[in-house]
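Annex B. Sample input.
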Amino acid sequence: VQLQAFGGGLVQPGGSLTLSCVVSGSDFSTETFGWYRQAPGTQRDFLAGITGSGGTYYADSVKGRFTISRDNAKNTVYLQMSNLKSEDTAVYYCRQRFGDYGQGTLVTVSS
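Annex B, continued. Sample output.
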């Protein structure tokens, strides 16, 4: 399974950004996927997950600000982020449940 995250960049505090994770080599529509992030000098943290049936679950730190979704026709998982804060600055990764992390994308929240 290969996963590639896209959509990172520089955004101002209070702004929004949507990340995409394109997946190949997977029975995509039946699998559970998650988004994670890792800031410099910290551990990688879970943010949000979505099951094959579309059920979602979130870490308390992002609940209400981040939304995970999927498009089975495009083999893509999304993470919509709003009201971004400086502490959201990190490299963001996607991962198939029980699988390896894909290549991440850097999000920098700064004025």
